[in-house]
Amino acid sequence: MELRQLQYFVTVAQHGSFTRAAELLHLSQPGVSAQIRQLERELGHPLLDRSSRTVRLTRVGEAVLPHAQAALAAAAAARQTAQEFGGLRRGHVRLGMVAGAALTPPPALGTFPGLATTLASFRQEHPGIDFSLAEDTTARMLAALREGRLDLAVIGLPTAEGGREGDDGWTALAGLALHTVLEVPLVAVCPEDHPLTAAPDGPLPVAALAGHALVGTPRGTGLRTALERALAEAGVSATVAVEAAAPPQLAELAVHGLGVAVLPDPGPAPGLRIRRLTDPVPRVRITLAWPTGRRPAPPTAALLDHLRATYPGP
User: Fold this and answer.
1) What 3-state class would DSSP assign to 213?
2) Sign of the torsion angle spanned by Cα atoms 121, 124, 125, 127
3) Is 69 helix (H, G, I), strand (E, B) or coil?
4) pTM of this structure
5) Exposed, middle or buried: residue 206 (CB in 10 Å: 0-12, 13-18, 19+)?
6) How high is the pLDDT of residue 166?
7) What pLDDT sits at residue 168?
8) What distances in angstroms separate CA 309 from CA 112, 181, 230, one per listed residue?
9) Beta strands per DSSP E along the chain
10) Is 105 helix (H, G, I), strand (E, B) or coil?
């Protein structure tokens, strides 16, 4: 049994005519008829009733037709899949990144390569795949993923049910798949002469931030939402007096006395004091996000597999 025989049989069955089927298949009518008779001999039953001007299916033909159609569909899907993998020779991926995301964890959480290193290694494997990289807030990137303007995004989310409807600055996460890369606590970073440095050693209660000017990321980012949630849970409010897009900028603003920065631990730096926060401990997670409502193109799927293998998560 050959696929071409099944194709001839299905075409004749659909159009009720050997002549019309031969025209559509760009073959001679005797050639189509001969191949179908060979299929019938192999199956041991006639599939078509040729006794009238219109060709009709026999009872066996009616039973066999769905299986023939399924076999042809499976063969077409196999060809499509092979062609898509051939497409990995070239392509383009639109990748969004929350500002300052390097995917490099604090020393206490271990080490793995930064995002630029990871993209470079992927490019070595797939030199024909290009990237466009865009920095934005998490909220806007979530919308861009749903609307098809981004293929993948590296976003920041607060750890507790991040992105629920009604969260300040968020849209819901429905329709998106997530893969957590790392999860880190936030700390308070302030100049060495700041009043908070006089507090007793040990973790600093989030409530102690009340009344102090803060330096934070804009609304619509994971860091800002995690900070505001922690303040609300502690029953206090504080003013974010200065906003900056990336954690290194927050620390630099803090060292110049513009406020207390709340960010992942930046490590020791001249002129800065770092205080762990508690009651509650604000946390943020860096996450890969992609839409679930459509099948990713082969270049996007290949990059996603590479990123998930490189960053297996906490």
Assistant:
1) coil
2) positive
3) helix
4) 0.61
5) buried
6) 42
7) 36
8) 11, 10, 32
9) 48-49, 56-57, 91-98, 129-136, 152-158, 176-191, 204-205, 214-216, 240-243, 260-264, 272-278, 283-291
10) coil
Phi-psi region of 126 (alpha: psi -120 to 50; beta: other; left: phi over 0): beta
The number of residues making up the chain comes to: 314
Mean per-residue pLDDT, 227-256: 87
DSSP secondary structure of 268-280: --TTEEEEEEESS
Q: How confident is the model at residue 164 (pLDDT cuts 50, 70, 90)?
A: very low
Tokens of 102: 């390097």
Q: What is the C-alpha separation between 304 and 136, in angstroms, rounded? A: 19
Amino acid at 186: L
| DSSP state, residue 172 | -
In this structure, what token pair is assigned to residue 165? Answer: 């409807």
> Alpha carbon of 61 to those of 11, 14, 30, 66: distances in Å?
13, 12, 20, 9
Rounded-to-integer distance, Cα 232 and Cα 52, Å:
82
Q: What is the pLDDT of residue 206?
A: 92
Helix and strand counts by DSSP (H, E) for the chain: 9, 12
128, two tokens: 């024909």
Distance CA 18, CA 89 (A): 42
pLDDT at 175: 83
Q: Cβ neighbours of residue 298 under 8 Å, at least 6 residues apart?
A: 84, 85, 87, 88, 91
Q: What is the pLDDT of residues 122-160, one digit of tens each?
A: 988 888 888 898 888 888 888 888 888 899 999 888 775
Q: From CA 155, how far away is CA 146, in angstroms rounded?
A: 14
